[in-house]
Each structure stands twice: as structure tokens, then as C-alpha cells.
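note to self: dont lose this again. the chain is below, predicted strucutre after it. 194 aa total, dont forget to put it in the shared folder this time
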Amino acid sequence: GVPWNPAKAPEGTVFRGEDGRQVTDFMLKSRKLLREQCQRAYTNEPENYNRNPYYPLKVPAMTQFRKIFSIDAEYIPGSDDHDKDFEDSIGIAGDWRRPGPVWVIPYRSLYPACHLGGLLAAGRCTGAKDDAWEITRVIPTAALTGQVAGLAAVLCIQNGVEPYELDVKLLQNELKNKYGFPLTLADVGLTPKA
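---
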């Protein structure tokens, strides 16, 4: 497909979701568009009018700014990274959309490639794209990456290092031996893809 170009979008229809005013504008304009569309349908064919396709529940009660920000991580998992082990694994997530694919989450996806000090991400903010982002954005994986980021932060403080300097073996030892996290596909009885 052709990449979407926000510069070519009609004026007033691009919302970045960076502040409360933009979110409010999005909600007000989306509801106004729905009312206008419903009115046009009724005006054009009142005898065939069916309100069901225009029922207000079709408009989200919450803005869907889900996929707008994530860090440019040291490693950014993508669609082809399912069923693969990583040396710096910090946990495993299943594909909630269908049976089969399993995602091993690399620690490098939790910190930025530019090695900005003191920063660890979790959930939808971690470095991930395409199918991998769909897996990391949901609550179970967000909780997993959040717990790991918290533990990694503690270990960084205790060892006087930045997240990108942390010995991942130290983190993995805590995760596996103290908290029982499976870290590899073999830990859950699976074989990595070739």
C-alpha cells in the first residue's frame, strides 16, 4: 500500500494525541461527523433510513491513540521474530489473536538505542513493530515488561549502571530463579523456528 501522508490529510483531521486539547478535539469532531453522516442518510432517503449503522456506540468512548509512540529500542522485534529465542530474553508472551505463535521478549527492546540514561519502557512503549507491537501492547505483556523494567531499574541502581549497561545474565537469574519466569521456548516445551 501507499504510506499515509498526514500533510495531504484534510485540515483539522490529524490528531497526534500529545495533549488533552487534541484528545478533546478528536472526540468532539468525531461525534460531529457521525451526527452529520446520520443526518445526510436520513435527509437523502427518509423512507429507507436505518439508524443501526450510525448508532453512536460505533464511536469509541475512548480515543484510539494506541499506536503513536514507542521507543527506538536497541532491538525492535517485528513480525518475523515469533518463535525465536533471544540471548537477552526477559520473558515469553503468547499471541492473543490466534493459537500458535509465541514471542520471546528481548531485554534490548526495553531501552533506547541512543543509550539515553535511566530510561526503560514497558508495554506498548517498548521497541516493537507490526505483529510484535500487537503482542506487547496488551495487558499481560505490558505487565510482564513493566515488572521486568522495575526489576531492571532496581538492579541498575544496586550496581550503579545504566539500563543499557546492565548485565542481562544478572537480570535473567533473578527472573528465572527468584520469580519463576520462563525465558526460552524450551522452558515452556517449545522448539525455536530455524
